[in-house]
Amino acid sequence: MKKRIFLIVLDSFGIGEAPDADLFGDKGSNTLASISHSKKFKADTLAKLGLFNIDGVNCKEPLKNIDGAFGRFQELSKGKDTTAGHWEIAGLVSEKKFPTYPNGFPKEIIDKFKEATGREVLCNSTYSGTKVIADYGEEHIRTGALIVYTSADSVFQIAAHEDVVPVELLYDYCKKAREILCGEHAVGRVIARPFIGSAKDGFTRTSNRHDFSLVPPKDTILNVLQKNGYDTLSVGKIKDIFANSGISEYIYTKGNKDGMKKTEQYFEKDFNGLCFVNLVDFDMLYGHRNDVDGYANATAEFDEWLSSFIPRLRKDDILMITADHGCDPGTESTDHSREYIPLLIYGNCIKKNKNLGTRKGFCDIGKTIADIFEIENSLDGISFKSKIME
Fold first, then answer.
1. Comparing C-alpha atoms, which of 340, 354, 299 is closest to residue 57?
2. CA 222, CA 224: separation in Å to the nearest integer?
């Protein structure tokens, strides 16, 4: 079967607290509701796809006629981070929570990292990514020591000025950290956070961020498709999240606008399989910085792009729009939030006005994609292909 599926992840676009949100300190979180009150918010195209008809979404009036299928999904994995969310979307539930370090990394890890890089370490604490370079940037430039920090997520982040530590060298340090962080300390991601600027004029993170993830312990939809001869295209940080496992071709991006542009490049390609896209700005630039208007405006920009993308879809193309977790910019927290995610599905072969209700498991998405391609698989989840296909 020849078919193209575009799976677009709006990074952190949650639609309301999950039933277990209180266990993650996220009671009351609702990313969509928070941004919907902004004057910058506009989602006419998303509304036509059923965004405001999803169960539990009541921040805007639902429409009577919806152009496709829609539903909300509850996460099963033991976390609320990027890696667990994307892996589960791809059909792999993480039964074990990735380790987090609210008090910083243990001495044994830091000592190994210092020995491997030949550099001292600054900070080693939970920190905001923009504040940590403001507080430690000058000392880093003066001493050459690396800024190591973490967050509520399972991440080991290394910040360094591009004039002090060239980007490729920073990537090498991250690879060394990735080798060290194994076993009980196998964090979800090691992240390079290069920055530029000066203490006088202020420091700014650059788009040369790079993630070094764990290799998924089992096959995901990417591996399943690739093993069966289908194309698996990655746009944005998808390649990094899956440690390049199961990916046949990739393009990195520099923000949402570039991500949409790169998606169009693949749209023009006569591929047969899955184009997996991550639009990172929702989370990185706006959710984590509690920028409600910025998040709302990013939604409006995506919605406008979507209005021109949808009419160009080919007869057998399928579009799926979802998220990997929440990051409510309207709460005091700057961390990810445990929320339901939306799924909007459009295509000539997709039923109209089809409400999938509430489903347990992001993994149903990957399972359904495999089913659409008629591939036998052992992915986690339950397919809903029969509910959405004409």
1. 340
2. 5
